[in-house]
Write a structure and sequence with these properties.
Layout lengths: L16 E7 L2 E8 L16 H13 L6 E4 L10
Parallel strand pairs: 2-3
Antiparallel strand pairs: 1-2
Length: about 80
């Protein structure tokens, strides 16, 4: 999947997927998604409106409930910190 596939010993590109890593005595699940509505022209651009709704629906299906860290290129629509 993805626009890019890049792996090294120290990093992995996540496009609508998760990875589980061991941090000391705990497994941490990280989900990454590159889509953003702010910068047209970039490969990760998601047009506001219809296309963004498709991404939201995809995230609803693909982000695991067990995720510990959510890494995206855009802030959430709703934040519990607001």
């Amino acid at each position: 999947s993805g626009l890019f596939k890049f792996y090294s010993k120290s990093m992995q590109y996540l496009q609508d997927e998760s990875v589980s890593i061991q941090v000391k005595d705990r497994r941490v699940e990280i989900y990454g998604s590159p889509w953003q509505p702010q910068y047209p022209g970039y490969l990760t651009y998601a047009e506001p409106g219809f296309h963004a709704n498709q991404i939201g629906e995809k995230w609803n299906r693909t982000i695991p409930n067990s995720v510990d860290i959510l890494a995206t290129h855009t802030p959430p629509k709703v934040s519990i910190l607001a």
